[in-house]
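PROTEIN SPECIFICATION:
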Amino acid sequence: MALRFGARVRLSVLCAVTALLVTLVQPPAAADEPLPRTVSGWLPYWDQEGAYADALRHAAQLHTVSPFWYRAAAADRIEGHPGAGETRIIDGLHAAGIKVVPTVMETMERGALADILTDPALRATHIDTLLTLVAGHTYDGIDIDYESIATTGDTAYPAVRAAYASFASQLCAKLHALGKKCVLTVSPQTATTGRIWDYPALGRAADTVRIMGYDLHWQGGSAGPLATPQWYDDILRRATALIPAAKLEMGLPAYGWDWVDGGATRHVTWREAEALRTTKGIPYHLDPDSRTPHFRYEEDDSVRDVWYQDATGVAADVPVLRRYGIRNTTIWALNFEDPQLWPVLGRV
């Protein structure tokens, strides 16, 4: 006989709690046993001091910090965000035993990055420009986070996919010749997303491939969880079949979105989401399906819908990561996160 609705909800909640307890009851590391350095994190330039202090607080677990410092503006031009290349921060992270691998992102006009990648001369110029950037500082490598090509249409898709793979292979080889790390940040590959990335080729070229495991529901779409265990299972089942698990880092969200129908979606860090929930006097609620925190509140005669991630939500994802042999994680972003996230990541 089918379960009544209330019974199904209670059963779903019980299953979620049981899975969480299985994760959390594992014995903690002994007091004299160091936490594993299996975590990396992006350092946002708009919260540089707070994120830097956060990194130092958790240096025992961090192996790499990627300051979000640079933007590729053209084949021969890399622009720095405020604070880019600050020696005090580079030296401080190194002194804490943390590698510094800054991120280069891009927000070029549609088609501009594809034009650079598919032109061998422009591609070579861009690689040289990136190498000059790395050589000009005491960086340990570079993280390439190029996302505008992800929406390439069917006609150009095969050529752009192959061109990005060639770019990655050539750049990584030259970085390795300099003794530097090559990190590639990509979007998840599922049945309907991420086809622009040639996962096997990128896995062969890079030291690390970071998968951005967030924005299952995103700023421009409908409200919902940023990630779920089921989604992670789909992502990692595909990824580990194409890239060695030891080379993969699963990107975890430390933030959320605050949606409203017909209005602007707001970005919220975990800290901001929890402060908002507390101010509104709303009880903590874990969505039984996604196992992520979620609440609604009223503002200006509208109902706003907040989904975000915290340590409890990530703990529900940990068994999936373990199942696929993923030990390394990366956080978007430092100083956004629930402080209780760190011991959870120590169990991955």
User: Anything to note?
Assistant: DSSP finds eleven helices and 15 strands in the chain. The radius of gyration is 21 Å.
